[in-house]
Amino acid sequence: MFANDIKVCDMIDINFNLLQLLPRTGLELKYANLPIKEACRRCGIDRHTFILICNVYTFNDYIPSAETLEESSLEDIMKYLHNSHDSYTGIALKSLENALSALIMPCSEQQKEVVQKFFSDYEIELEKHFSYEEENLFPYVNSIISGCPDSNYSIAEYEKRHENVDEKLEDLKNIVMKYLPEVCDNNLRIDVLMSIYHLQDDLKRHTYVENNILVPIVSRMEENGKWTIRRK
After folding, report:
1. What are phi and psi of 6, to 5 degrees?
2. 104: Cβ–Cβ under 8 A, 6 or more apart, which residues?
3. Whether 21 contacts 55, CB under 8 Å
4. How many CA atoms within 13 Å lie on the side-chain side of 139?
């Protein structure tokens, strides 16, 4: 597991996918040659939370302890989740859409329409999923952070409605890999598949943070009636 004394650049060498987390957490790459503890201090980030999220994205069998959750900053977890939503809709989906459009260029109009509709439907589904969290879950958690929890909502309500958002990517992956005509460029097909695999893994880890970090922290606070948030 990552610890305070490892340099940010060494951590990225272990898992270069962590580069995508830096803007989501607020850590600036210009501090990459510093230990995590110092880089986080300079960026105003809680180091415990930063390490926690990086561990989730690096080690498949990682399970945070109760002590680790206790040390984490709810504010920084929320910042990561919100920024991740912006990253998915503003960067990842648009990049995948552009790559997919280039890939199906040689297809018939009917084939293009089918693929484009499938992707568009998934994009709408994902945006609805994020909108629910932004409009319901996030204000509730922010009310906890402010010390005045909203009594009209609970984390249990969120759990009942929360669904995985990466399942349809499996279908899209099969369409690209198995069912597009041979005329589609092989290198473009690989590029699109790599993007799908990457997004699918990213969303699974994002969901893990929601289900296995955010939910337990908020649930414990609800049970204990403790609304005082540990500050960085």
Report:
1. -75, 140
2. 111, 112, 115, 116, 180, 184
3. no
4. 9
- d(C-alpha 215, C-alpha 151), whole Å: 17
C-alpha 230/C-alpha 232 separation (Å) is: 7
Q: By three-state DSSP, how is residue 6 classified? A: coil
Token couple for 81: 């989740």
Map tokens 């040390």 to a residue: 71
d(CA 165, CA 163): 6
Residue by residue, pLDDT tens for the chain (232 residues) are: 899 999 999 999 999 999 999 999 999 999 999 999 999 999 999 999 999 999 999 999 999 999 999 999 999 999 999 999 999 999 999 999 999 999 999 999 999 999 999 999 999 999 999 999 999 999 999 999 988 888 899 999 999 988 888 888 999 999 999 999 999 999 999 999 999 999 999 999 999 999 999 999 999 998 877 555 454 5
